[in-house]
Amino acid sequence: MLKTVLEKIIDNFVFPLVVGIFLPTIISVVSKFNTGNWFNYAKNIPRIYWIVFAAIICIWLLASIIYRRKKLVDELNSDSLIGFYAVPAYGWIKVGEIQYVELVWNIKVPAPPPWSDSESLNTNRVEADTPPRCPKCKTEIEQSSSFWGGYIWRCVACDYRKKSKESYYKEAKRVEKIAKRELEKQTENESRN
Ligand SMILES: [Zn+2]
């Protein structure tokens, strides 16, 4: 709980900047309103408070930048980007499409060996293709990091655009879980019939 609160606070480096500008502005406005002078209140606050305030903002800003950098590196290191290390021996076969977080995801499983006559699919490894597809025209989506935190998904072929808190690599892992369960249900039904 504390961890998620802390993560939220440092997830976006715009927050410390906003607080750093907002708080002095409010003090000035209230000062102007009550005393007729913008700086009366600010002058009455001991200098040590301003120094501590500035230090907190600086540390906050630094923590946000480090946290974002770390998140980016973690993402680049995640196996979602280096999936090529284990292409199945006989390639993939597409088993369906799933619509999730608006996008269209192609779902694939390892193709069976050519001599195999088994009808059943290997559902141990279910993968969702990245990039996912545009829900309007099925073109591959382009992802960029947003200045305000999170990501922007954009279709290069049409006007589709969506903001997302998570990268599509992370969403792909979720789609894979859903798809895996769907395929398991199918095989369960088949074996029952
Ligand atoms: Zn499109």
Helix-strand blueprint:
Layout: H1 2-10, H2 14-35, H3 40-44, H4 47-77, E1 92-100, E2 103-110, E3 127-128, E4 141-145, E5 151-155, E6 161-164, H5 168-192
Antiparallel strand pairs: 1-2, 2-3, 4-5, 5-6
Helix pairs in contact: 2-4
Bound molecules: zinc ion.
Shape: elongated
- Please report the distance between the alpha carbons of the first and last residues: 46 Å
Structure summary, number of beta strands: 6
Structural class: alpha+beta
Alpha-carbon Rg, integer: 25 Å
Heteromolecules bound? zinc ion
Series of H and E elements: HHHHEEEEEEH
Largest sheet: 3 strands, antiparallel
Q: Strand sequence of the main sheet, in spatial order? A: 1-2-3
Helix content: 40-55%
Spans of at least 5 consecutive residues whose pLDDT stays below 50 are: none
The share of residues in extended strands comes to 15-25%
Number of helices: 5
Q: How many distinct domains?
A: 2
Quote the average pLDDT: 87
Describe this structure as you would to a colleague:
There is one protein chain. The chain is α+β, with helices and mostly antiparallel strands and 193 residues long. The chain has two domains: 2-77; 84-192, no CATH class. 48% of the residues lie in helices and 17% in strands. It has helices at residues 2-10, 14-35, 40-44, 47-77, 168-192, and strands spanning 92-100, 103-110, 127-128, 141-145, 151-155, 161-164. The strands form two sheets. Strands 1-2-3 form a three-stranded antiparallel sheet. A three-stranded antiparallel sheet has the order 4-5-6, with no helix packed on it. Bound molecules: zinc ion. Zinc ion binds next to loops.
